[in-house]
Amino acid sequence: MTPHILVVEDEDALATLLQYNLDKEGYRVDVCGDGEEALIRIDEKQPDLVVLDWMLPTVSGIEVCRRLRQRPDTRNLPIIMLTARGEETDRIRGLDTGADDYVVKPFSMTEFCARIRAVLRRIRPGLAEDRVRCGDIMIDRVAHRVRRGGKEVHLGPTEFRLLDYFMQHPGRVFSREQLLNAVWGSDVYVETRTVDVHIGRLRRALTKADEDDPIRTVRSAGYSLDL
Q1: Is 86 exposed, middle or buried (0-12, 13-18, 19+ CB in 10 A)?
Q2: Secondary structure E strands in the chain
Q3: Is the peptide bond before 47 cis (omega within 30 degrees of 0)?
Q4: 8, 49, 156, 158: which is deepest, by most CB within 10 A?
């Protein structure tokens, strides 16, 4: 699944440059210009990584970072702080607040993209690898194949994307709305019960040989992958 990056930057020219280059790198990119809007966007649909300017209107980047680190659902969300504040004390403050990396303006776009790849590999390895294993399930994104216990599992494209998303966040419970946004996209209207249909298909495909059901249903909350 293509990693989703939220760029929070109030300089229009730089925001456009970042969006262009990250699009070119193959990421899905959203942009917003102030800290309050960033928090709302993250509540609505959590990205895989946040590029966060320090100096922002309404709520500063450092405060956005602090709030995200205080919340259980965003505690491990990768954050790269992007700022003109290059003093050592500022770097230390940014990293101590919870940023995973700290990039000072002006910067090399090539190096910046390399830093994003490094953070994703370190914190969300499932987003940076062609083959991902969780328990006895292995997914190959390039060949678009799935195996469980060494045996081939045949999945439709939607079930494949569902499993891929679950394997990026093993053990985490997702609501139907969160799964709709992540797998179908926020700009596509699909009824929430559609998620149940595809979860059922995924379950049947993964348990054909009498294996344990890896999809856990959490009443009134959603689903998770437990292996």
Answers
A1: exposed
A2: 4-8, 28-32, 49-53, 79-83, 101-104, 131-134, 137-140, 145-148, 151-153, 215-218, 222-225
A3: no
A4: 8
Contact 136, 171 (CB under 8 A): no
pLDDT digits 0-9 by tens, 183-192: 887 556 778 8
**210 vs 206, which has greater pLDDT?**
206
Fold designation for 4-127: Rossmann fold (3.40.50)
45: helix, strand or coil: coil
Q: Which among 43, 61, 45, 59 has a CA at the least distance from the CA of 5?
A: 45
Query: What would the pLDDT profile of 86-128 be if each residue is shown by its tens digit?
Result: 677 777 777 888 888 888 888 888 888 888 988 887 777 666 6
pLDDT tens-digit series, residues 57-66: 899 999 999 9
What is the rounded radius of gyration, in angstroms, for the C-alpha atoms of the chain?
A: 19
E-strand spans in 42-168? Answer: 49-53, 79-83, 101-104, 131-134, 137-140, 145-148, 151-153
> Which residue reads 């190959």 in tokens?
140
Give the pairing type, strands 28-32 and 79-83. unpaired
Write out the residue limits of the CATH 1.10.10.10 domain(s) in the chain.
Answer: 131-225
The CATH number given to 131-225 is: 1.10.10.10
Instruction: Give start-end residues of each CATH 3.40.50.2300 domain in the chain.
Output: 4-127
